[in-house]
């Protein structure tokens, strides 16, 4: 989380450090992505359990049980990881479209650290008064601003191609994250009742065992 905040406050220095270290995909995923996602998931899950979540039609504030919270946060984790790997693949493919020779590690590094502010803002979702679309908008604006410095520093595209890669890549990433957010909002509101019921039963059985 500290790294995500530094990327917002000191983007150039932070990206210089990231680019210089050239960490592997596994190291970034397990030592940066997963701790950040787990920390924000715990914060959001506690909010759902103690303060409630807007569910049903019409929407009503309801506190969730522990199995329900686990299901919600596992869904969050799966979708955010999927957006990460999809975004990295798209950045690499776009780089090739702009005649660049970029590795998947470079693209993964840019997207993983770029999404840090977006994931950090998720903590605000712990409060039911905060709209999930507000956190999406704020987080994505921060991510796009962070990527502005990260794309040229880490992926090192040709200067004439750099802005195009940054712009199109950011738009694709925002769209992918938006679709993921849409699915999560529907799940949190109880739109996938049958699927949620089955998953909650499985989690309850696991926790009970």
Structure description:
- By secondary structure, the protein is mainly α.
- The chain has one domain.
- The protein has helices spanning 2-9, 11-21, 25-50, 66-97, 104-114, 116-121, 132-155, 159-188, 193-208, and strands spanning 53-55, 60-62.
- Helix 3 runs antiparallel to helix 4.
- The longest helix is centred in the middle third of the chain and has 32 residues, at 66-97.
- The two termini are 34 Å apart.
List keywords for this structure.
209 residues; elongated; 78% helix
Distance separating the two termini: 34 Å
Shape: elongated
Report the sheet-strand fraction. Answer: under 5%
Encode the helix/strand succession as letters: HHHEEHHHHHH
Radius of gyration: 18 Å
The average pLDDT is 89
Oligomerization state? single chain
What's the β-strand tally? 2
Helix and strand composition category:
mainly alpha
Task: Give the neighbour order of strands across the main sheet.
Answer: 1-2
- How would a crystallographer describe the biggest sheet? 2 strands, antiparallel
Tally of separate domains: 1
Which ranges are low-confidence, i.e. pLDDT below 50, for 5 or more consecutive residues? none
Q: Could you estimate the helical fraction of the residues in percent?
A: over 70%
Helical stretch tally: 9
């Amino acid at each position: 989380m500290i790294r995500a905040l530094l990327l917002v406050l000191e983007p150039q220095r932070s990206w210089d450090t990231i680019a210089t270290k050239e960490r592997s995909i596994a190291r970034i995923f397990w030592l940066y992505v997963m701790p950040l996602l787990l920390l924000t998931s715990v914060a959001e899950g506690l909010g759902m359990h103690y303060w409630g979540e807007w569910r049903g039609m019409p929407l009503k504030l309801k506190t969730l049980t522990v199995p329900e919270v686990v299901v919600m946060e596992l869904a969050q984790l799966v979708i955010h990881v999927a957006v990460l790997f999809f975004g990295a693949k798209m950045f690499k493919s776009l780089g090739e479209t702009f005649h660049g020779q970029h590795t998947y590690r470079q693209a993964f590094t840019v997207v993983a650290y770029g999404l840090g502010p977006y994931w950090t803002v998720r903590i605000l979702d712990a409060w039911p008064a905060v709209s999930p679309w507000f956190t999406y908008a704020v987080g994505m604006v921060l991510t796009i601003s962070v990527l502005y410095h990260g794309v040229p520093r880490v992926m090192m595209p040709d200067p004439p191609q750099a802005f195009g890669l940054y712009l199109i890549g950011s738009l694709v990433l925002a769209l992918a994250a938006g679709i993921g957010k849409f699915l999560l909002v529907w799940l949190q509101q109880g739109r996938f009742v049958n699927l949620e019921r089955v998953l909650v039963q499985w989690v309850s059985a696991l926790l009970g065992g």
